[in-house]
């Protein structure tokens, strides 16, 4: 999935992950594919089995130097979170699924719960 993002020309400035083993493994794979040091992973313990509002809190607290982020978390919270972002919804966020949105903001603390632009959804089962 990380390679697919690279092929789409999607740059990622920050990799934010739950401290759960599987989320960290996935985030570590992504950061390696993006040829970035693992020490740049942003670990957020509060994302472990977090409800949607915690995802918003974590994003809104990010450094404004980051322009594009990837966030790695868990169901059911991450599915609820992505379904709040745009009118486009999914039944369940699959393992290693990507739900990409664009937020028209200058500061992360302004990250909206709605009114984001849906860019694309991809998952391992979707093929390449």
Task: Give a written overview of the molecule.
The protein has 128 residues and is an alpha/beta fold. It has one domain (2-122): Phosphoglycerate mutase-like (Rossmann fold), CATH 3.40.50. The chain has four helices and five strands. Helix 2 links the parallel strand 1 (14-17) and strand 2 (42-43). 29% of the residues lie in helices and 16% in strands. The protein has a three-stranded parallel β-sheet, covered by helices on one side. The protein has a two-stranded antiparallel ribbon with strand order 4-5. It has helices at residues 2-7, 21-33, 52-60, 77-85, and strands at residues 14-17, 42-43, 69-72, 98-102, 117-122. It is globular and about 30 Å long.
Features:
29% helix; alpha/beta; 3-stranded parallel sheet; 128 residues; Rossmann fold; 4 helices
CATH architecture: 3-Layer(aba) Sandwich
What would CATH call the class?
Alpha Beta
Largest sheet descriptor: 3 strands, parallel
Kindly state the number of beta strands: 5
Distance between the terminal alpha carbons, to the nearest Å?
9 Å
Order of helices and strands: HEHEHEHEE
Mean pLDDT: 95
Q: What's the overall geometry?
A: globular
Strand composition percent? 15-25%
Strand order of the largest sheet: 2-1-3
Estimated helix fraction: 25-40%
Q: What structural class do the secondary elements suggest?
A: alpha/beta
Low-confidence stretches: none
């Amino acid at each position: 999935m990380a390679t697919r993002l690279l092929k789409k020309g999607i740059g990622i400035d920050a990799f934010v992950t739950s401290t759960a083993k599987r989320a960290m493994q996935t985030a570590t794979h992504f950061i390696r594919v993006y040829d970035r040091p693992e020490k740049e992973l942003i670990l957020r313990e509060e994302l472990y089995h977090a409800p949607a509002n915690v995802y918003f809190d974590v994003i809104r607290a990010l450094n404004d130097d980051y322009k594009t982020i990837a966030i790695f978390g868990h169901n059911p919270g991450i599915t609820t979170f992505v379904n709040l972002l745009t009118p486009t919804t999914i039944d369940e966020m699959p393992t290693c699924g990507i739900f990409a949105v664009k937020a028209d903001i200058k500061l992360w603390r302004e990250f909206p719960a709605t009114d984001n632009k849906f860019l694309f959804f991809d998952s391992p089962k979707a093929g390449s």
